[in-house]
């Protein structure tokens, strides 16, 4: 009887425990994001993944990747029960995304996104379905680091020069100036900054500073949004100014030589064409040997340049024509047709 008194309450406690833990027992299939966020660079590639609970077989598992923010939602990839569905992928990601299927055996749903664009940044959702379903979210941040600064020096007067720095990147960077005396704030306030965006959405940031022609070093720095200088370039005055002047004079000399060569070639071409035309121009008369000393040959067309569709005729006439009969005149006056090949020789 004592045993029976303690058995009834214990059975009630077990039932209550099962009732409370039943939802947890049902949710045996869980998806977890491998990273909270991912960083990538423009034109590069990145892999993003999520892990899911162990299952007996992955041959019929379904994997869906979407970008849910910023709106609208874009479908990135879909594996439907082991079969890819390319039509599911939004044109924005078409031919740039693939699933690393070998990772499914490790219970990982990993995609590789290539040729990254700034517009790929956002919140992504990884959904895995196997009888049950679960999902997790992760963040992708695409950047374009400032990697190269284009320096330019321009002379404004005998005592002033303009220093210019230009670089491309994303997000928008702030440009500061300093010298060997660390007058950063003063020089930065004097500088003139501007920016535009190219077709990829990358910022082209330019900063200009006017300084005097004194021996000094000036440095421009591109500062990222975290306050750290990601890229710097230094001007050494007046050394670099002298080098710039040498290059400028060199380019000017080369330009003059090129113009002279082009002009000379053009002049030679004109002279050659004129000489060729002169060779084919007017041949006023052609003499022909004849027993009759008074016979001469003249051209009715002066042998001007001819086309292939036109012929010339030569008429032979005699000074002793007068007083002769018509038959004799016909003999003394003959017309000959010159073929184009003969005319071309003249």
From TrEMBL:
Transmembrane segments annotated in the record for this chain: 250-271
Domain Ig-like: start-end pairs: 23-143, 145-236
Keywords: Cell membrane, Disulfide bond, Glycoprotein, Immunoglobulin domain, Membrane, Receptor, Signal, Transmembrane, Transmembrane helix
UniProt key word Signal: yes
Broad class of the protein's primary localization: membrane
Signal peptide extent: 1-27
Localisation per UniProt entry: Cell membrane
Membrane topology: Single-pass type I membrane protein
A GO biological process held by the record: immune response
GO cellular component: external side of plasma membrane
Database matches in InterPro entries: Ig-like_dom, Ig-like_dom_sf, Ig-like_fold, Ig_sub, Ig_V-set, T-cell_Activation_Regulation
Presence of the UniProt keyword Membrane in the record: yes
SMART domains: IG, IGv
Record-given protein name: Ig-like domain-containing protein
Provenance organism: Hemibagrus guttatus
